[in-house]
Design a protein that fits this description.
Length: 386
């Protein structure tokens, strides 16, 4: 009876052992295959590193069109917001009072000229009479002084005529520069003041082509640009100045090309930055004063670089790494030193070779040293540098 019970227990144990082995064998048979990943070789490309700044568009010239003489505004000769050319007639102040002043000044000049002619004739007669001793020297001196006085009166009258002509010209207010004019600040029939310090502003005029964009750069960046400018060959400069590019809020790829034309002469102690200005051509008048803009400046000379998609880069605390598939289809951990993001791809400065196959898709499913099932693809698309 005891042997029979022992045999039953032994049979049960053997059955459990057999079941465990069978389960283990089935688990091993169901082990998943290596994860599928997409791999690609890095892009070899010559790149330029860019520094980007926030900037504001400014007019090269801004003029407040003001009256220079007093009077009633007679007429306006432009439409609000129109483009005007230098010398174009904008406003006319009632010229009649100033025409009358000019006529009076010219009449006074004519009178002065007549008095001078008379004094000159008297002086000529006095010289003849003095030689004949028919008049005294005192009378001759008096006539000479009268001639000089008459000559001075001509100069005074001529100055009055010039002033009257200027005032007459000032009744026609013309554009001092070419550009775009704003709205008229005063309408016809109003009295305008031309007194210095109190003159009436009639309109504002800004020059739009070329146009400025100003921004602030830190001291280290300014020193870097100056060094690059000295080291670069002339063909990399535009007109001997450092190039830059700009885009507006609704633009991409920095379509506007310009040059840096001014750097301030001191660092702002409060911000640690220097004011920098760039100049751009603006033939289509797209750029308007006051617009917000993004401006970028080359922060390096052109150099050959290897680029990969930014998603292919992993982080291990403060260490950046990529996974490279070797000849045995195993993912190898490779620490890298990264550069900037250029045209949608990341520059790898150290750790990557041009013939490496980098995991660009499926990075999160792979463990370093583990086998993978790679699918090779072409180099990832990178935008062309403008």
């Amino acid at each position: 009876m005891r042997n029979k019970f022992g045999l039953s227990v032994m049979a049960g144990l053997l059955g459990l052992l057999a079941a465990g082995c069978q389960k283990r064998n089935s688990s091993e048979a169901a082990a998943p295959p290596p994860p599928a990943v997409t791999v690609a070789q890095p892009i070899s490309k010559e790149v330029v590193e860019w520094d980007e700044y926030q900037g504001w568009v400014e007019a090269v010239d801004t003029v407040s069109v003001r009256a220079r003489v007093n009077g009633y505004l007679d007429s306006i000769h432009f439409k609000d917001g129109a483009d005007v050319e230098k010398g174009q007639l904008l406003f006319v102040i009632d010229p009649r009072p100033y025409q009358a002043d000019l006529d009076r000044a010219e009449a006074d000049l004519a009178q002065a000229q007549t008095r001078f002619d008379l004094a000159s004739n008297d002086m000529a007669r006095a010289e003849r009479l003095l030689k004949a001793k028919a008049i005294s020297e005192e009378d001759a001196d008096s006539r000479a002084k009268a001639e000089r006085t008459a000559g001075a009166a001509i100069q005074s009258a001529q100055a009055s005529v010039e002033i009257a002509k200027l005032n007459m010209e000032y009744t026609q207010i013309k554009a001092p520069i070419s550009g775009r004019i704003g709205r008229k600040m005063i309408t016809e029939g109003n009295l305008v003041n031309g007194s210095q310090g109190q003159s009436t502003v009639l309109a504002n005029l800004v020059a739009l082509d070329p146009i400025y964009c100003r921004f602030d750069a830190d001291e280290q960046s300014i020193l870097k640009y100056q060094q690059l400018s000295r080291e670069n060959s002339p063909e990399n400069l535009r007109g001997g100045k450092w190039p830059c590019e700009m885009q507006l809020a609704n633009e991409t790829n920095f379509p506007h090309k310009g040059v840096l034309d001014f750097v301030d002469n001191q660092v702002d102690a409060d911000t640690g930055t220097m004011r920098v200005r760039a100049v751009f051509s603006n033939p289509g008048r797209i750029l308007q004063p006051g617009f917000f803009a993004r401006i970028r400046v080359p922060g390096s000379a052109a150099y050959p670089a290897l680029l990969i998609p930014d998603l292919a880069v992993g982080s291990d605390q403060d260490q950046k790494f990529i996974l490279v598939v070797d000849a045995q289809n195993k993912a190898q951990y490779v620490p890298v030193k990264l550069g900037p993001l250029i045209d949608g791809a990341r520059v790898v400065r150290e750790g990557l070779h041009s013939n490496d196959w980098v995991v660009v898709n499926g990075l999160m499913s792979v463990r370093p040293g583990a086998p993978v099932t790679p699918t090779r693809t072409g180099a990832p698309a990178v935008a062309k540098t403008p």
